Amino acid sequence: MTKGPGMAKLCEMLEGVGFPLSKAHAVEVFARQGDWHTLDYYQKVASVEAWEIDDSHLAGLRENLPKAEIKQVDSIHYIRQEDNFSSADLVVIDNPQNTFGPNNEYCEHFDVIDPALKMLRPGGVIVFNVNIEPFNYQQFPDWRVRRELFYGPMNTAKLSMDELVEFYRRRFEASGRVVTDKLQSFRTDYLHYMAYRLL
């Protein structure tokens, strides 16, 4: 998979709806080495906090994002502990695909998206990946089960963008947030960035 222009385009779209990137405190939830899409917004925001658990990524992360606050944490555990994190204006969830974790207990952004709302300031933006058409999906029954549990009656082998936009709007509003902007940007032919600005 290549980096692609998706995050740069999304930044343009956010600025187009009046989101003040230059004043935003951003949190990258799954930072890895910070050498993919994080570089597209790193210089545009006021500050970046980057979370990564894997020792092998930390040197590269510090090199690529020298002004960022690097935290070596288990992102999923950390985001569930409200006393651990500061408030953010931009939360970016560059989640792995399929299931993952020590026992493959996690899946995509499903385990972090609701806790992430608690750290997002009013007027802030949450960004996450959605895989609309997983590759070799039939070979990963555990992944299919998790997606079906999360998305309900939608066809999880080929998700409709129109349905997805409304699915997440309803989910965020059920959590007590008000959606003011809904943006999407292609990352690859199967991965899309989705961004919601929430009061």
Notable traits:
alpha/beta, 7 helices, 199 residues, two-stranded antiparallel sheet, seven-stranded mixed β-sheet, Rossmann fold
Could you characterize what this model shows?
This protein has a seven-stranded mixed beta sheet, with helices on both faces. It has a two-stranded antiparallel ribbon with strand order 5-6. It contains seven helices and nine strands. The chain is globular. With 199 residues, it is an alpha/beta fold. The chain has one domain (6-131, 160-198): Vaccinia Virus protein VP39 (Rossmann fold). 32% of the residues lie in helices and 26% in strands.
Brief overview, please?
With 199 residues, the chain is an alpha/beta fold.
**CATH domain fold name:** Rossmann fold
* Helical amount: 25-40%
Q: Calculate the terminal CA-CA distance, rounded to whole Å.
A: 34 Å
How many structural domains? 1
Strand arrangement across the biggest beta sheet? 3-2-1-4-7-9-8
Number of DSSP helical runs: 7
Regions with little confidence, pLDDT below 50 for 5+ residues:
none
CATH superfamily: Vaccinia Virus protein VP39
Summarize the SSE layout with pairings.
Blueprint: H1 6-16, E1 25-28, H2 38-42, E2 47-52, H3 55-64, E3 69-72, H4 75-79, E4 88-93, E5 99-100, E6 106-107, H5 113-119, E7 120-131, H6 141-151, H7 161-174, E8 179-186, E9 191-198
Parallel strand pairs: 1-2, 1-4, 2-3, 4-7
Antiparallel strand pairs: 5-6, 7-9, 8-9
